[in-house]
Amino acid sequence: MGWVxxxxxxxxxxxxLVKTVGFKHPTYLCDPRNVIKIFNEKEVDELIILDITAxxxxxxxxxxxxxxxxxxxxxxxxxxxxxxxxxxxxKILKLGxxxxxxxxxxxxxxxxxxxxxxxxGSQSIVAAIDVKRKMFGKYExxxxxxxxxxxxxxxxxxxxxxxxxxxxxxxxxxDRDGTMKGYDLEILRQVTEAVxxxxxxxxxxxxVQDFGLAVKQGGxxxxxxxxxxxxxxxxxxxxxxxxxxxxxxxxxx
Length: 253
Known about the structure:
By secondary structure, the protein is α/β, with parallel strands linked by helices. Helices cover 34% and strands 27% of the residues.
């Protein structure tokens, strides 16, 4: 097994970073610029920043802040939140982001993925799927920061977004978000077996061992997490950290 990308996924609310549990109860962490500086020093593979209120507030991405963050960031950065058209995607990429993440607009306007992939390349377009377990073990996908059901199961949606031109899928478990109880390996495996494009596991990582399980048992091509990189101890004190390369190599070996 080669090197597996290990990606901090940071949630932006206004101009500050927060962490949620089950997509609710956002806890303020700190200024995103400070976090990026720390991750630069730790030589993180990649970074995902999601503005969790942009779509709900029906506003455009905060381009001024994004420019500050991309200017500070030494690693590839992906951005999501409030993206509804091709012009916004172009602007975000020109500001220095390497990827854009589409969630609500990917479901409501899958043609946008096709247009964006044709214009900027599939490698720049990430389709984010937020999933929740229903009764009897079935799953359903949600949009608008986990507030609106789509009526689509994750496998069906993943195939649809792959066919539309997405180069990658960010699969996020709403149930596991912020719990640090491990990834939902069952739905992760279902999606990775259904598509050919890389799938990033997100939602629930509580240890580096969970990263290894997501790859070896869930079939993930990369792993993303939030709480494990920003909290320390059972009282969840804010402490920005990242495992060293040797530790990750051992887990993914």
